[in-house]
Amino acid sequence: MDKFVRSWLAELKSYAAIFALVAVLACVPIVAQLLDNPFLIRLLTRAVLLGMAAVGLNFILGFGGLLSLMHASLFGIGAYVVAILAWHDFNMEPVLGFSGTSNVLIALPVALLCVGLAAMTTGVIALRTMGAYFIMITLAFNQMLYYFSISLQTYGGGDGLQILSTLTFNHFVITSRAQFYWLCVAVLGTVLIVMHKIIKSRFGMILQACAQNERRVKALGFAPLPYKLVAFVISGLIAGLAGALWAVGQGFVSPADLSWMRSADLVVIAVLGGTGRVYGPVLGAIVFVVLESVLSGLTPYWQLPLGLIVIGIVVFLKGGLADLFVGRRHA
Amino acid sequence: MTPVLWVEQTLNGVQLGVMLFLMSAGLTLVFGIMNLINLAHGSLYMAGAFFAATFTLWTGNFFLALLLALAASALLGVVMEYSVLRRFYGRSHLDQVLVTFGLILVVNDVTRLIWGVVPVPFGIPTFLSGSVFVMPGLPYPIFRLAVLAVGLLVALGLFLIVAHTRVGMWIRAGASDRVMAGALGVDVPLIFSIVFAAGAALAGLAGLMAGPITAVQVGMGEPVLILALVVIVVGGIGSIRGAFIAALLIGVADTFGRVLLPPALGSMVIFILMAAILAWRPRGLFSAHG
Amino acid sequence: MLDVKNIHAGYDQAEVLFGVSLHIHEGEVVTLLGRNGMGKSTLVGAIMGIVPMRAGEIVFDGTRLDGQPSHAIARCGLGLVPEGRRIFPNLSVRENLLMAERLPRAVAGQCEHWTLERVVDFFPRLGERLNNNGTQLSGGEQQMLAIGRALMTNPRLLILDEATEGLAPVICDVIWSRLATLKRAGLSILIIDKDLDALTGLADRHYIIEKGEMVWEGDTATLLSDPDRCERFLGV
Ligand SMILES: Nc1ncnc2c1ncn2[C@@H]1O[C@H](COP(=O)(O)OP(=O)(O)OP(=O)(O)O)[C@@H](O)[C@H]1O
Ligand SMILES: [Mg+2]
Q1: Nearest-by-Cβ selection for B182 from C70, C90, C91
Q2: CB of B268 within 8 Å of any CB in chain A?
Q3: In whole angstroms, what is the distance from residue C184 CA to residue A143 CA?
Q4: Distant-in-sequence, close-in-space partners of A212: CB < 8 Å, separation ≥ 6
Q5: Which residues contact C155 (CB under 8 A, 6 or more apart)?
Q6: Between A140, A147, A311, which is nearest B229 by CB?
Q7: CA distance to partner chain B, nearest, from residue A147 (Å)
Q8: Which of A73, A133, B285, C130 has its CA 20 to 30 Å from the CA of residue B119?
Q9: Is position A192 within any domain?
Q10: Phi, psi at residue A37, to the nearest 5°?
Q11: Which of B39, B106, B271 sits opposite A144 (nearest CB)?
């Protein structure tokens, strides 16, 4: 009994950082209220969703050793599906025989299905290659989906698509920014816990072993490809989930959300926060978003200092910000 | 599709292909020899266009400006290699992607600081403007023909150097097995610096030739960079021959895809082509690594 | 001529060589023996400047080699035939040879130096395949090409890592007889191989390496006089 309690406590402790992070994030609307600064909520909503996408990316980057530059496009697919379904609902035109919907609870699974299919097909091709080829193929797929989104003339083409209908959660309608923010934080918390569980599972162990020494994994009788593919799809689904929520929150999607620069931003966010921990990218996203907002407030040439910071991080900070907070992790 | 349109699109496609080859040549060798992913190669393309536009304005002499722009692009490449990239040869691809992404941000903003945000005008001399009839009923811009000719000539020259000289053998040997080439007495770092500078000049050349056709503006390099990456992946990393064939393939496929197919599909054609080729040969058509 | 003094070397995680010394005199053929994974290739890599060294000194004809880049080391007159041959797959046989061509350091033309023609005379099989791609050759031909390529650098010391590994017996005989010819011509050679009989027929002295340390050195007669030693260190 004692043993059981202790192992349960240890398990709980391993989630401590995640709980703490979610708790702090959940307090933000209250702080914003006290400071009378609603902009803070918008900023943090952005951070939470970009962070969620980066958590997804980091599942294969930090734990699978795969550098994908197409996660912005998967994020974008999630966003576009929600927006397109809402467009069909608003214009009362059926899509492929079905009517559109403004119910997020229906749109979300559809979005995830589309993202999953996209991740699966691209993953099968990309994962057959290795190292640099993988990076460049994912970059190319990102560009492909980017151009595809521009070519969607019905849905705004290069200008993007505004969601004109009122999005609902069945009968519930989100009325305040804080409510939506809390929803995002709750989803993020769930994602982090699920990720943590997966990484500690047998599947997660094999994935990490693949990243370290694929040949040994093969020698042990596992075929790495199915593991990597499943991981890639999971990772894409999380990015797609973040994208779908992004569309809900912004009420607007645009091809810019799919640009390859955004994919690179997600990599920067993951590395900034530290790829070794599940929640690292969330820290990275907060810093990134704050940095972006502060720098762009100071100068129109804010990408210059941002670029220098990115270069500086690569040169100096190997384990990301998480190292500064928690101390270096020993593998 | 009429024969006239057919010929015109073929010319456009080959011209795009030649341009892509100039971009990919340096990139694929740098990649093959040092295993370095250089996303900032597109910045050199952009720099070539900006340099040429400005030098034309300063000197009033188009050809002098071209030479100066090539030299300046090569110099920028050398500075980039020497100050930053050199430290990243042995590092992970992740670090390389991040650092060269950082470089893109820096170069883009520095360009904005110097040249402003509006596209820079880049005039071409009168004897290159206007059109000629390449066949009855098909006028074709002289400048585009010139681009095509220069591109093919440079490609031919490059091919001769790489395929038939001692330096070319060293470059190919280095691209396939850097350590072994070094152990046989090839000064790989020196060869690499030369290749990097030449690759930068070629990217600059592609950029300055594209300048008058598209527009000289910040961010013009990145779409071309991604096409060039597609080219080198399809052609096989480290292979000049592969890059040339893949560049023409991609150039022609892209041009015809946009004309013949609905827009949604046309813009995706080359990526689908890439996916198909890689599904068949995961290391590209002519990988230097056997 | 080659003086390896007490070197420590290894890879990122693991140190492999712990204070290894080895000497080769002008015109001598020396072997490096030891079971799999004992550090033979690592020692060759350290000499050639491919594997990083932590301590020790390597001198070749009075020149310090350690710390120099590998191309500079090669240019001092060391010709490498690497483990696995490492033929350049994207170069033809002719190009594989020509890319390595270098005139000897000593006054050129003083003694007969290696050229494409001479290498082809030396290994006629290569002559028939000059225009083939490196990878289209059989294993034996690839090894001949690797040796020919090293000779094209006009080395003063030839280093062969696994001279006949995985080759058909007929080909092995050719290679051993060619190496004997090189020895008669006065070339210094460092060989790694598993074929003890062939090695003892060719070499003057031997080193045995065990877990990164030199455990024995001596001449052929002494080596053969103690079968126990061969059993213990080489498993033969
Ligand atoms: N690139 C490398 N990175 C890390 N360790 C290595 C590397 N190459 C070899 N080793 C290790 O160094 C040790 C010595 O290897 P080395 O190749 O020098 O042995 P060897 O005597 O040449 O063996 P063989 O007869 O199999 O060629 C081995 O334990 C091996 O696992
Ligand atoms: Mg060995």
Answers
A1: C70
A2: yes
A3: 64
A4: A65
A5: C77, C78, C79, C187
A6: A140
A7: 6
A8: A73
A9: yes
A10: -130, 80
A11: B271
Tell me which residue range forms the domain holding A97.
2-326
3-state secondary structure of B25: helix
Task: Give CA angle at C197 (C192, C200), nearest 5°.
Answer: 65
pLDDT single digits (tens) A170-203: 888 888 888 999 999 999 999 999 999 999 999 9
What is the mean predicted confidence (pLDDT) over B81-87?
Answer: 87
Residue A331 lies in a domain: no
Residue type, B236: G
Q: What is the average pLDDT score of chain B?
A: 90
Number of domains forming the structure of chain A: 1
3-state SS assignment for residue A168 = strand
| Closest ligand 1 atom to C83 CA | 27
Instruction: Evaluate whether ipTM surpasses 0.85.
Output: yes
CA distance A70 to A65: 15
> A88: buried, middle or exposed (CB in 10 Å: 19+, 13-18, 0-12)?
buried
Question: How far does Cα B203 stand from its chain's mean position?
Answer: 5
Q: Which domains are assigned to chain B?
A: 7-280 (1.10.3470)
| SS3 readout for A208-243 | HHHHHCHHHHHHCCCCHHHHHHHHHHHHHHHHHHHH
DSSP string, chain C: -EEEEEEEEE-SS-EEEEEEEEEE-TT-EEEEE--TTSSHHHHHHHHTT-SPEEEEEEEETTEE-TTS-HHHHHHTTEEEE-TT----TTSBHHHHHHTT----SSSTTSS----HHHHHHHSHHHHTTTTSBGGGS-HHHHHHHHHHHHHHT--SEEEEESSSTT--HHHHHHHHHHHHHHHHTT-EEEEE-S-HHHHHHH-SEEEEEETTEEEEEEEHHHHHT-HHHIIIII--
The CATH number of whichever domain residue A117 belongs to comes to 1.10.3470
Centre of ligand 1 from the C-alpha of residue C27, in Å? 28
Residue A306 CA from chain centroid, whole number: 21
Quickly count helices (H) and strands (E) in chain B. 12, 2
β partners of residue C79: C158
Is C208 close to ligand 1, i.e. is its CB under 6 Å away?
Answer: no
Q: How far is B19 from chain A (nearest CA, A)?
A: 18
**Chains with at least 3 CB pairs less than 8 angstroms from chain A:** B
pLDDT tens digit sequence for B114-159: 998 888 888 788 888 888 888 888 889 999 999 999 999 998 998 8
Rounded to two decimals, the pTM is 0.84
Please give the structure tokens belonging to residue B150. Answer: 């220069």
Task: Tell me the nearest-neighbour CA distance from A69 into chain B, angstroms.
Answer: 10
Q: How large is the angle between the packed helices B3-34 and B41-59, nearest 10 degrees?
A: 110
Contact between B170 and C95 using a beta-carbon 8 Å cutoff:
no
Are the C-beta atoms of residues A160 and A254 closer than 8 Å to each other? yes
Evaluate if residue A324 carries a pLDDT over 80.
Answer: no
pLDDT band at C5 (very low <50, low <70, confident <90, very high): very high
- Pairing type for strands B138-141 and C205-210 reads unpaired
Beta bridge partners of C2: C24, C60
Name the pairing type of β-strands C53-60 and C63-64: antiparallel
